[in-house]
Fold this sequence. Notes:
With 239 residues, the protein is an alpha/beta fold. 40% of the residues lie in helices and 22% in strands. It has helices spanning 28-36, 48-61, 104-114, 128-137, 140-143, 154-162, 179-187, 196-211, 214-227; strands at 18-22, 40-45, 71-76, 89-95, 115-126, 166-174, 230-237. Helix 2 (48-61) links the parallel strand 2 and strand 3. The protein starts with 17 loop residues before the first strand and ends with a strand.
Amino acid sequence: MSLETIDLQRMGMRPGDRILDLGCGEGRHAISMFLLADVHVIGIDLSDKDLDTANSRLAGFTSQAVQPHKSCIFTRADGRTLPFPDNTFDQVICAEVLEHIPQYQQVLGEIKRVLKPGGVFAASVPRYFPEWICWQLSDAYHEVAGGHVRIFRSAELKQAIESQGMRRFARHWAHSLHVPYWWLRCTFWRAEEQVAIVELYHRFLIWDLMQKPLLTRLLDKLLNPIMGKSIVMYFCNEQ
């Protein structure tokens, strides 16, 4: 079971579609799409460790990742220079990635290039307010190697993507219950020993992910517009 930020039901996946998960990490979205629909998914990342984890997780669901009617493949690639021809993919997702990339506009240009006309692009980044609090609580939170290099305002990201010839058709927020955890983590970031309250909240989040009780699902839905940790936007490639 994985924590998905992108609402895969909004992607409009059809049998035979080709989907790119750019910055796939340990494969949470790519594997979910592979299991959900008869599609061909390629997950790319720069971390060999994360790609190894993704392949291990995929092996736990199927002994044959490539099948005639569907496939899921993980490979190392750079989002700034995607190794795919123009108009290759029906959908592209980029979840919690752009905030790590100094030249994020270059990545958006590559996404535009490989996305088919009429295709769907889904992007998520940390929401401004919860992320800003994290930065105030701890410099180390965002100064680690490969950490966040910017805090996006939603209007800024929307404009950057729409300048590529795509139109936003949906938006939502996600993971409000994770915000207090990251505020706690940042408060005690330099603690040499594990702080009990941080550990307890982490256990709560794992329990919530595994059990999905109705109460926390409703609470998360209620709080997401107010303090959702991530903002998620969906675009149609019109040109």
